[in-house]
Q: What sequence folds into this?
């Protein structure tokens, strides 16, 4: 079954953005790094000695410096990243939580793994020091819903509050759910996005054992190479992105000028293998077509695709074939930001949607880093080498995840 928002076309105004990625600790620096095509993968101290010991760490983000020592030590890094991204997004939107009607404000945050680094740290303490050493904050720091809960508490958002967990589609699913809260008139404002901080020995070892990670240890910076003939897996990363979404009339009443609109959403399930995408891309195609139909648009309207583009052999092949099949006649410009940022798992869709909004706002498509030779058969227009100016009014952003999860959003210009 394919899900859309239902009830006819509805455009949610995107009035603020916040990002923390390996490319930078805020939206401007992240966008500049992505536009420049600067890869961020490097050796990660916490992964030393593992078969894959590099990742894309958000090293420029210092939780204690941003949040203060007292607050930061009580929050898992997933929540720290999302807290910073939310503060930036609200400031950019010109919203003061002290002045809003909190009952009309919702929070929806996606994450694949939640506070997994806190779990690992406390499991190590239990094994080494015994049960009395385990922190009483373990559960509130690491439960999947707690980032959304902490954000609501910090900003007095008393509307619907929940987490979405659809693997690497989690952030995109959150945006779709947030839009539905606005369309149903349940909320006037929804803070939505995704966050992930899963660079841990356990997670890295597990993905490496599956064969999902790039093994390019002699060249970490060149390891994440979406759509390239020599790609061999993704690079584990951390990051967060938050979008402030509003009912258009609410944004207009307070004089806010949207950056773009979230105009369509589609989701589906492959209902197949636990980790491999459907080889025909049928579920992904269904979600893409649903996201366009939900926006009242068709394949010929798409100017640009912000692809899932993980740098894994099968995903990139299936996704490019699906793009060619559904959008081929229009030949939209395609990019994957994961060549720069790595794969932020549950946060990746929110980060890529934020980048898609910036692409619309600046009329500029970022390059796909490390793409030196596109793989045979991938007859799509992947932007490489440098950013491409492009007049555009419609962008789609794809996210696909383990469990056969597919989610796509359609973004349109303001």
A:
């Amino acid at each position: 079954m394919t899900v859309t928002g239902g009830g006819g076309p509805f455009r949610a105004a995107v009035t603020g953005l916040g990002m923390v990625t390996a490319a930078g600790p805020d939206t401007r620096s992240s966008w500049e790094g992505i536009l420049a095509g600067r890869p961020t993968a490097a050796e990660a101290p916490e992964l030393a000695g593992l078969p894959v010991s590099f990742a894309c760490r958000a090293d420029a983000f210092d939780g204690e410096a941003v949040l203060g020592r007292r607050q930061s030590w009580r929050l898992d890094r997933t929540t720290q990243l999302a807290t910073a991204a939310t503060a930036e997004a609200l400031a950019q939107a010109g919203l003061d939580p002290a002045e809003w009607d909190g009952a009309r404000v919702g929070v929806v945050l996606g994450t694949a793994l939640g506070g997994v680094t806190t779990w690992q740290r406390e499991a190590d303490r239990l094994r080494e020091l015994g049960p009395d050493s385990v922190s009483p904050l373990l559960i509130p720091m690491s439960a999947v819903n707690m980032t959304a809960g902490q954000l609501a508490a910090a900003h007095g958002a008393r509307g619907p509050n929940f987490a979405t967990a659809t693997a690497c589609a989690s952030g995109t699913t959150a945006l779709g759910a947030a839009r539905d809260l606005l369309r149903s008139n349940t909320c006037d404002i929804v803070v939505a996005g995704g966050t992930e901080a899963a660079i841990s020995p356990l997670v890295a070892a597990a993905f490496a054992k599956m064969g999902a990670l790039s093994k390019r240890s002699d060249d970490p910076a060149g390891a994440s190479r979406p759509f390239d003939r020599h790609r061999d897996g993704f690079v584990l990363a951390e990051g967060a992105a938050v979008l402030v979404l509003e009912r258009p009339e609410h944004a207009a009443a307070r004089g806010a000028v949207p950056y773009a609109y979230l105009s369509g959403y589609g989701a589906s399930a492959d209902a197949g293998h636990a980790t491999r995408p459907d080889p025909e891309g049928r579920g992904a195609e269904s979600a893409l077509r649903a996201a366009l139909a939900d926006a009242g648009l068709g394949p010929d309207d798409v100017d640009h695709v912000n692809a899932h583009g993980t740098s894994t052999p099968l995903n990139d092949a299936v996704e490019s074939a699906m793009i060619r099949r559904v959008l081929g006649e229009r030949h939209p410009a395609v990019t994957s930001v994961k060549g720069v940022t790595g794969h932020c798992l549950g946060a990746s869709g929110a980060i890529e949607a934020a980048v898609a909004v910036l692409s619309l706002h600046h009329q500029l498509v970022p390059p796909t880093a490390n793409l030196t030779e596109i793989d045979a058969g991938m007859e799509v227009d992947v932007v490489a080498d440098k950013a491409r100016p492009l007049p555009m009014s419609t962008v789609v952003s794809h996210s696909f995840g383990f469990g056969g999860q597919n989610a796509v959003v359609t973004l349109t210009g303001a």
Remarks:
- The radius of gyration is 20 Å.
- Residues 160 and 215 are 42 Å apart (CA to CA).
- The mean pLDDT is 95.
- Residues 77-93 form the longest helix (17 residues).
